[in-house]
Design goal:
Helix content is 0%, strand content 31%. The protein is built from no helices and 22 strands.
């Protein structure tokens, strides 16, 4: 049997789903409505917001924040400290809807990258460490820099 491993310090809200064979490490928080696929790994201190979808086989390194509106397709790698936003013009009294962000199958997000909301990162694309993604990334493309541009 392919069982999940959830560390005792992790917080898994009622209504969150964790797929078989997934590991959720120290001090993670997975909110209600989130779906973590099978055979995923959530490193130390990962936050997964409400209704986030994480496909099978994803590897999310330490201290990554994935907020509501984000979908990771299967086999995505997210490097340590990466952040996904979900509101274009954030304010304390937010009245805007969350903008959807999608990361395609087998894409790689480098360490400390920031992915602004409302973009699609294509399958097998690669985002360089420390990049700020402000627009869509084509399938298979490699982008880097601030703002991220194809290299």
């Amino acid at each position: 049997m392919n069982r999940s491993m959830i560390h005792e310090t992790a917080e898994i809200d009622d209504g969150a789903l964790i797929g078989a064979g997934s590991c959720v490490w120290h001090f993670c928080h997975v909110m209600k409505g989130a779906r973590i696929g099978m055979n995923c790994m959530l490193g130390h201190g990962v936050f997964v917001g409400e209704n986030v979808q994480v496909g099978d086989g994803c590897r999310i390194q330490n201290h990554v924040s994935i907020f509501e509106g984000v979908t990771l397709e299967p086999d995505v790698f997210v490097g340590p400290g990466a952040v996904f936003t979900n509101v274009k013009h954030p304010r304390a009294n937010r009245k805007q809807p969350f903008l959807p962000t999608t990361v395609g199958r087998m894409a790689t997000i480098g360490a400390n990258a920031t992915i602004l909301c409302g973009v699609t990162i294509g399958p097998r694309a690669m985002v360089g460490a420390g990049s700020v993604v402000t627009r869509n990334v084509k399938p298979g493309a490699t982008v880097a820099g601030v703002p991220a541009q194809e290299v």
